[in-house]
Design goal:
Mean pLDDT: 84
Oligomer: single chain
Radius of gyration: 22 Å
Order of helices and strands: HHHHHHHHHHHHH
Structural class: mainly alpha
């Protein structure tokens, strides 16, 4: 069983508490705003439903679609950048063991803007990395080798799905190589970062999978903790508002999970990536293998050569 860096990940989160509080506060406020929004829209839908039931249902569906659109916008232009800045600071502690800055948040933001001149560049690099890591997981990763638990043969397909979801943490770890290298050619850094990941994938993927499962379990815990008082509140609310309260509880529990539990999973994956790939040089053999299974890896290589 590969080493899991859970204790070190907890220590890393403790060192970056300004980001934990910022993430928790941002996601909680956003979740409360969505809950209030759902409450108001559910009330409007209920009133309109008294006139015509179909109209009430239609308004609620439109309100749900609007909330999803707002969440996607916030995820792309605020929460993603917040996570990237947190990743930059955690990388600094992992690689160099210290952070010589008075403000972690300001330092992390500067690292992101210095490495990625525009958010569109970061999204483009991340998209290519995501495609490559998923292709690698499907073609080369053998979970039975890293999770040798007796009697899990029947669960292997489920674990493969979990592994594909967990690659989101690996994507961030590979992107974090840009903060370590201080290179302006983030395409080349990402290209080399994918190759060295392929060379040392077992402990890195093991941390991502195990911590991803733990993160999901913590979501259930948050859901129960928020759901119990919500049941009491729902008992005194009009029946039409109870679905909105239920949606709000689920959204808030999910956002707290993303703010805290996912940060823990990311920290462990970052540590595993940088520990296992330290002083490693990209292998031409693995480069050829990846080029054979992933168009996005070939695209990444072309952009690395062009420097853009």
């Amino acid at each position: 069983m590969p080493k899991l860096y859970m204790s070190e990940a907890l220590g890393l989160l403790a060192k970056t508490m300004p980001f934990i509080w910022l993430r928790l506060g941002s996601y909680t406020l956003f979740g409360l705003a969505l809950t209030l929004y759902f409450g108001v829209m559910a009330g409007i839908a209920w009133l309109l439903g008294q006139l015509w039931q179909v109209l009430g249902v239609l308004v609620f569906i439109l309100a749900l679609g609007g909330a999803i659109g707002v969440f996607r916008w916030a995820s792309r232009y605020y929460f993603y950048l917040l996570k990237a800045a947190h990743t930059a600071v955690m990388t600094e502690y992992i690689v160099f063991g210290r952070l010589e800055a008075s403000s972690q948040v300001a330092y992390g933001k500067k690292q992101v803007t210095d490495r990625f001149k525009d958010t569109s560049v970061m999204f483009a690099v991340d998209t290519l990395i995501d495609g490559v890591t998923k292709a690698f997981t499907r073609n080369f990763a053998r979970l039975g080798n890293i999770l040798p638990i007796p009697g899990i043969d029947g669960l292997m397909k489920l674990l493969e799905r979990v592994a594909l979801l967990a690659t989101t943490f690996i994507d961030e770890a590979i992107l974090s190589r840009a903060y370590k290298e201080r290179s302006d050619n983030v395409w080349q850094v990402a290209h080399d970062g994918v190759i060295v990941y392929a060379q040392a994938w077992q402990p890195i993927l093991a941390n991502a999978v195990v911590l991803g499962v733990i993160s999901s379990m913590q979501f259930v815990v948050f859901l129960i903790l928020l759901g119990l008082p919500a049941v009491a509140v729902g008992a005194v609310l009009p029946e039409a508002l109870r679905p909105a309260l239920g949606v709000g509880v689920i959204v808030l529990a999910w956002l707290i999970k993303v703010a805290v539990a996912d940060a823990f999973a990311l920290a462990a994956t970052l540590i595993a990536y940088h520990r296992e790939t330290a002083d490693m040089t990209p292998s031409p053999q693995w480069q050829a293998r990846l080029e054979g299974v992933s168009d996005k890896f070939r695209d990444l290589g072309q952009r690395a050569q062009q420097g853009a």
